[in-house]
Amino acid sequence: FLCMHGYPIYADFVDGPTDERLLPFLGLITGWLGGREVLFEEFGGPALRSGTVLDQARAATPHTSLLDEECAATFTRRALDALRHDGCSGAMLWCYRDYAEALWDDAPLDAATWERWFGLWRVDGSPKPAVAEVTGFENLRRVLAPEVPWIDIGREEFSASPREHLPRLYRRFCQHIDGTASG
What we know:
There is one protein chain. The chain is 40% helix and 10% strand. It has 6 helices and 5 strands. It has helices at residues 22-34, 52-60, 69-85, 129-135, 155-160, 162-182, and strands spanning 2-5, 38-43, 47-48, 67-68, 90-93. The strands form 2 sheets. The protein has a 3-stranded parallel beta sheet with strand order 1-2-5. A two-stranded parallel ribbon has the order 3-4. It is globular and about 50 Å long.
């Protein structure tokens, strides 16, 4: 099997930091390119409780989206549903726990400040709301031969210019699933 990582917060061609459609898209592209089943090995989002701390953190990390914990939980559930629907064999979230403040001045947390809050559990060991979404989710495995009619190029053409083709294919993928959902 193949593994894939994906984060909407890092993709400038998606509809925001919680666009769960990116994950099955990347999984399907990976499976298409590699001819194998795909485990979505890593996804998630940096999340803090609503309020002053979140507002202060957002001010300190202007180039990356920090999520409210409830928003991150909703994203987690939608992402798991989307990954199951589009045939990934499994999924894992990044990561176990937020980083302790004592580590924030060390690399890479000094520069990549948003990385401090990717945990499913807070520094104090209490679970974030996304934990309930993962705990309540059963049986991601639904591996079928995925249909990818929205891919309109060959593997060699894609591989020659993936940065050009990813955004375009992502738009085609979204149009395909939106058409499927409404039709």
